[in-house]
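Re: duplicated header lines in exported structure tokens

Our pipeline writes sequence and tokens for each protein into one text file. With two proteins the header for the second block appears twice in some exports. Here is an export where it did not happen, for reference. First protein block:
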Amino acid sequence: MDSAKAMLNELLELRLKHPNLVVELARTRRKAVGWAHNRLVIIAIDHPARRELAAGGDEWAMANRMELLERISQVLKQPGVDGVLATPDIMEELMLLNHIGMERGEVDFLDGKVLVGSMNRAGLSGTEFELDDFVSAYTPRGVHEANLDAGKLLFRMHPDSRDSSKTLRYCVDALNELDEFELPCFLEPLVPNNELDPLVRLVGVATAMGNSSRNRWLKLPMVSPFERIAAATTCPIVLLGGKSAGSPEELRTKVQHSLAAGPNVRGLMIGRGVLYPRDHSNPAEVAKRLAAIVHEAN
């Protein structure tokens, strides 16, 4: 039996026989301390819940769940990688796999990590209701009860779609509830084709949403010149890669330029460009080099 199949069998046994183990693992984990004061490198992997499986030029890259989990766990073991953004299924699978590994004497790859719960995934890719993106994964209470460090919301705005106004309402409600729990939120405002001027306008909207902007982080695409985007808010910013992150070298160049755009550009929240590099290089090495760039930035 190969190692992936053996690991799947162990994970399945825990799911069937100990369904509440993830609750205990979440409750007793060692959380990150003072993470909001530091630069951040967060691995983002909430794409499958939105019907998105393509990465690195492969339409079905993320369809093999055990391979995906292995890539994430290896990246999380790299120095300078501070945490992970995931939907409940992947977050719980990582906790179970980490538990299995620790039982074997392996490193605890979630120790002291920043765990961010992905919240609205209902805007399924390629559907007519894609912009009606209500909360379908973690709720604010779910983020709190899972002992996570923050929540993440996606707000895609299309001026010709009334569904965008619905998603605006969902996001405002969730932001207010996260604020009641005193939980930070990463809010990701996006516009069609990542056009610069509309994105600058939307950054102002995203900064103002909800009862308070405290504990508000913005997750933004690396649109050039990024200086205009960084100047549109005083909120801390993390950079996303998206579908077209490019080669690892191109990605590093984009990151370096964007980090220099303003003191509020604080790191990365990036997934496919690291986990499935377009040149098929080692995800762990890609993550390590990006983390070094972020944490060595002035």
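Second protein block, exported in the same file:
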Amino acid sequence: MREYVPAIGPKSAKIMIVGEAPGAEEVRKGEPFVGSSGQLLDSMLSDVGIRREDCFITNACKRRPPGNDIKVWFPTKTAAKADGIQPMWGRYPKAQVIEGVNELHDEIRSVQPNVILALGDTALWATTSESGITKWRGSVMPHRALGVEPQTKVIPTYHPAAIMRQWGWRAVALHDLTRAKGESEFPQIRRPEYDFKVRPSVDEILERLSWISDKLDQGPMKLSVDLETRGGHIACIGIAWSKRAAICIPFMCVERAEGYFDTPDTEFVVIRAILAVICHKNARIVGQNFLYDAQYITLYWGEICNVSMDTMIAHHVCWPGLPKGLDFLSSIYCE
């Protein structure tokens, strides 16, 4: 039991912080996050205005793994089968991990926080059944334990120990902590109400593009535009006129080798309507890595868009050391 470190914090906490497993210093003091990782966590919490003493702090596994390496308790598939270890959410955890996860879920039921801050991949897996902290960090996700209603929100981010090895991640984690602070004010998972039109009819396409064109005639208007290509050709184009409303116009589709539209003449009419919008003098086009998209528009449709901003370039200028893919930008700038 000397290797066992219990959770700490008020049972009325709105924020639950979940780490991986205790280290040597945590075992010595009998409290989670009191070593070097804990000191970094404390400073980051302070930076975003979260008080440590207001948080319920625990670990996915309450026991310190041999050599401080949690991977020891996650054997490979082959080794797990040889030892009779059953799969759990895509992994093969040993008894020490299963014990910790079950206790963690009991703590979630007891505390009922408004948000869980999952630090690192093991905490992400234990709270959501997903893996890949770089893929999921910053997202607002539902907790996956059975018997917990309503589902508690989980926001995963990098573990402080990982940040100490990759210091550039600190700024990203601070953003995630700020999001967790905001989400701690209410228990619900609030998802924006989107108005996305996919696979529209020709009439729906022309009606929407005509509406946008009329708006452009009245003055400058910001539009977000994105292309998807396949085999060196334009597969579809998306146009958004607000933060939550957009239309996606396909040109290729899996069930019709000849394309989405019935005839080339119909496709031509649609393309001309698209160009009337994205090349309008009052259109302020915003796109992600849009210089790539623009070459296809010029090559196949013979026009040059009125590009106002490339989000990838803008982000990279401001934060040259951070990833610049659309998935990362979405996790930082979108709700």
